[in-house]
């Protein structure tokens, strides 16, 4: 099979298209998927650049998101037939530890992500457990199906499960050009919340308003805290979605209302932040970490997808031999929606 492989850590120059053996079924609940499309995420860029503590076996196939057709199933698989269109849940867990049995798969000690801890989706074939698959909704394109899960599942857990977002609450979302941030905007609007977004690009702010954001703040030219305070009569917002880390952490806290919640799933600009614990207890803030989503949360977002909700926007579709160009577009941060690699050829 053809696959985009990482031959060594160090950046996009280490990517090569190679012929690799097709994976085979090894467990009774395994499914072989012939992939039609894979979506790119910033996580993939971090993997390609080299993540501390991650043990690579080269050649390594990156890619967390994907969609395709069932090619073969193990003897224990039920409810999925050869030829069905499916999309992937990138999170894999052991299925039998205390956290998995409690339905909290992201807390499994063996939890891993496709393309990071396991072979990824930038290949023509992939084997995953049946529980990691769901049927692609009717009329959903391959590109939208490929780009749906990671960002939507991550944002759903952040806002609905962890932050317990309520109708009428006000949410601040940093960096609305990113996949998780755009998914958070869609989910917040679905939940009946009001949304303020930030970006360094006016075009992205204008697009976010079209998607339902009440206000857009250019964080390159404006004081985000001052604008939020002005918009809210100095009250602040109920929830901040911050995956930026060091650069925005203090501002995020200053934007919070009393009793507000900051939820984070990443640290794009660095992992080390400083918090004045006196303000933390005095204003009774909640600081919430979140990673990916559980099997139940995956089913929840798939029910909404089947109803035509929360579908991602697609920015660009490129063939496999131009996947590196797709990564460069994502790296530059100029995309509006998902960058997708077409694997059907």
How would you characterize this protein structure?
Helix 4 (149-162) crosses helix 5 and helix 7 runs parallel beside helix 8 (249-255). This protein is 28% helix and 26% strand. The protein is globular and about 60 Å long. By secondary structure, it is of the alpha/beta class. The chain is built from 11 helices and 17 strands. The strands form 4 sheets. Strands 3, 4, 5, 8, 9, 16 and 17 form a 7-stranded mixed β-sheet that branches. The protein has 2 domains: 2-148 and 311-342, Quinone Oxidoreductase, Chain A, domain 1 (Alpha-Beta Complex); 152-289, Rossmann fold (3-Layer(aba) Sandwich). The mean pLDDT is 97.
Summarize the structure.
The chain has 345 residues and is of the alpha/beta class. Helix content is 28%, strand content 26%.
Shape-level CATH architecture of the largest domain? Alpha-Beta Complex
CATH topology name of the largest domain: Quinone Oxidoreductase, Chain A, domain 1
Cα distance spanning the termini = 11 Å
Kindly state the mean pLDDT as a whole number? 97
* E-strand count: 17
Order of helices and strands: EEEHEEEHEEEHHEHEHEHEHEHEHEHE
The main sheet comes to: 7 strands, mixed
Any idea how many domains?
Answer: 2
CATH class of the largest domain: Alpha Beta
SS-based class: alpha/beta
**Helix proportion:** 25-40%
Q: CATH homologous superfamily of the largest domain?
A: Medium-chain alcohol dehydrogenases, catalytic domain
Tertiary shape:
globular
| Count of DSSP H/I helices | 11
Radius of gyration: 20 Å
Note poorly predicted spans. none
What amount of the residues lies in strands? 25-35%
């Amino acid at each position: 099979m053809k696959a985009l492989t990482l031959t060594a850590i160090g950046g996009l120059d280490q990517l090569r298209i190679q012929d690799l053996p097709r994976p085979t079924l090894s467990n009774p609940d395994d499914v072989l998927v012939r992939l039609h499309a894979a979506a790119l995420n910033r996580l993939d860029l971090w993997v390609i650049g080299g993540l501390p503590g991650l043990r690579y076996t080269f050649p390594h196939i990156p890619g967390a998101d994907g969609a395709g057709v069932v090619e073969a199933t193990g003897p224990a698989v039920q409810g999925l037939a050869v030829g069905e269109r499916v999309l992937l849940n990138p999170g894999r867990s052991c299925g039998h530890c205390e956290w998995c049995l409690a339905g909290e798969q992201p807390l499994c000690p063996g939890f891993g992500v496709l393309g990071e801890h396991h072979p990824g989706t930038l290949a023509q074939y992939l084997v995953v457990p049946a529980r990691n698959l769901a049927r692609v909704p009717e009329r959903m394109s391959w590109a939208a199906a490929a780009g749906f899960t990671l960002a939507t599942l991550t944002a759903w857990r952040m806002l609905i499960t962890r932050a317990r977002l309520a109708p009428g609450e006000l949410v601040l979302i940093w960096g609305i050009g990113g996949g998780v941030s755009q998914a958070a905007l869609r989910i917040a609007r679905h939940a009946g919340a009001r949304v303020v977004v930030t970006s360094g690009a006016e075009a992205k702010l204008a697009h976010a308003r079209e998607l339902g954001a009440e206000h857009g703040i250019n964080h390159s030219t404006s004081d985000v805290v001052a604008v939020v305070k002005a918009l809210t009569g100095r009250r602040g917002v109920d929830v901040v979605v911050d995956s930026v880390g060091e650069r925005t952490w203090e501002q995020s806290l200053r934007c919070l209302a009393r009793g507000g919640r900051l939820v984070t799933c990443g640290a794009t600009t660095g992992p080390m932040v400083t918090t004045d614990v006196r303000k933390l207890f005095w204003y009774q803030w909640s600081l919430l970490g979140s990673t990916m989503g559980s099997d139940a949360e995956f089913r929840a977002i798939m029910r909404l997808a089947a109803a035509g909700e929360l579908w991602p926007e697609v920015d660009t579709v490129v063939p496999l031999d131009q996947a590196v160009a797709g990564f460069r577009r994502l790296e530059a941060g100029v995309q509006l929606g998902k960058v997708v690699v077409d694997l059907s050829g």
